[in-house]
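Q: Predict the bound structure with flavin-adenine dinucleotide.
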Amino acid sequence: MSIDRARLRWNGWGWVDHPDPTAASPDIWARIAEAFGMEALPSTPAKRLEEVDLPRPRLSPDVLSRLESEARGAKISTDAFERAMHARGRSYHDLLHLRAGNLEFAPDAVVYPAGAEDVAHILSLTSENNIAVVPFGGGSSVVGGVTSKSGAGQSGVISLDMTRMHRLLSVDRIAMTATIEAGIYGPQLEEALGSHGLTLGHYPQSFEFSTLGGWIAARGAGQQSNRYGKAEKWFVSARLASPTGPWSTENFPASAAGPRLGDLIVGSEGIVGVITDATVKVHSKPEVKDYRGYLFKTFADGISAIRQMAQHGVPTAMMRLSDADETWFFQAFSTSPSSSSSAFTSIAKRYLALKGFDDRPSLFILGLEGDRETIDYARHRSGTIIKANGGFHLGTGPGDRWYHSRFSAPFMRDPMMDHGLGVDTLETATQWSNLEKLYSAVRDALREAIAGTMPSPGMRGVVLAHVSHSYTDGASLYFTFIFPRNLTQELDQWRTIKATASEAIATNGGTISHHHGVGEDHLPWLRAEKGEIAMRTLAAIKRELDPKGILNPGKLLPSA
Ligand SMILES: Cc1cc2nc3c(=O)[nH]c(=O)nc-3n(C[C@H](O)[C@H](O)[C@H](O)COP(=O)(O)OP(=O)(O)OC[C@H]3O[C@@H](n4cnc5c(N)ncnc54)[C@H](O)[C@@H]3O)c2cc1C
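A: Predicted complex:
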């Protein structure tokens, strides 16, 4: 195993002993209570594992002993901690269940294969015995992608944890590709490639606790996707173990031999097979990383600048534009002594007022990575476009601070949930021509839904948004919303907010997901987005590769 599982939180984010990021700001809770209209924040600790009842394991001793003898390299666990840790992913919705000790869907066993042969044996045995298998990488899904559920009539469920399969198998320095086992975590993957002077450059915010297989299966995006691409861009080919048999997908740089069927694997969410290893495009480690901050007078000005840079082919690694509320919120509640926006809190504020900025600007972080010559060109070209759109240069300070804390925000979620607050995120994408309309519709829908679910009058939530991944034809929008939890009906509260926002996305021309995937949570909106024929085609592919429907039932497609 590349990470010691016992050191991970079974019902939260990251390491058990990760320091509480709020400890450095003792007054933060009083300030948060005031901002959310709460007299005081309640204490809402999570249940401890010892207080929780797990369902009785359903696998027979015969099945367990056959697993041991046939998948010889695999480790099998029916231990309470392992079952609890693999019960669900790490969305806000998952955490509501996990923290309340609702482990109705814990797997009957957790199986860690050591190689592709073990995976094939496990799929053969589980098919024969009609046992569901949930492929599990880091378990960081935020769409209900790894909820350990069996389908109707199935006699149990196994969580197939891939993280013992973490070897770098080969590097082709001429083609600039690498073949890597799917269960490797982000840091180990970058370390292995780094020893060859290479990088994949896929850094989702969940980088430390997610795996290559999960990135591909969920069709994810790293923060620097403008340079390194989303999973579908850097994915070359994979070896897939399916109940029907092994499938090694085509790996040509291009081909006209019919549709590129291997692309089906990117976004397949574990429902057609288990990715055992994948070949991916790699890059030389960048010579220079240049991250800086800018302010725009309005969100719309910033959007216009990003669109122009994307359409003029300015080689950026990341363009991240916060709306006015997000800009304000992170400045007001940063736990870092020098917040990313403190650059415009005092002296700069007066100067900016003279330049026509009010107190609701939009913060833009521009990240450039590559060789010196490319960075020089990109800085010059982006500088011209940003200036033409009224952007104000804040220097490298905000960019460096963003870069160094780029994986930190998720560690705030557990302490916030301990204080009666809900924190959730969702994301979408649309064409440039529709971006501002979609932004307003989803933001307003979220605000309204949150206001309608407040536990007491006077309480309020916040809705924050940013544009992150951008393309020549459009971009993604990412929303974070924080709100007082309605403690007597918190699942209903989440359902109402989620459904309202998802409806707003669907009816205003957005995709139900730009990079989190579908899982269970987005399934009700998928049919409308894809269409009847596409859904039947997907179901037919699933039937071919997984005739008994044992793989990840109920994700991406309704359970049979
Ligand atoms: C705090 C936080 C921040 C996040 N930030 C980002 C972000 O910036 N960008 C982003 O794209 N996502 C983000 N996510 C979502 C999540 O991290 C991604 O979806 C990630 O790709 C999942 O990887 P994983 O290894 O944890 O997969 P898991 O959660 O274990 O699985 C995800 C899906 O992939 C399937 N799967 C996993 N491994 C395999 C395999 N080997 N073969 C077949 N199927 C498999 C599972 O069955 C499931 O359907 C974030 C999540 C959290 C909690």
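A: The chain has a mean pLDDT of 96.
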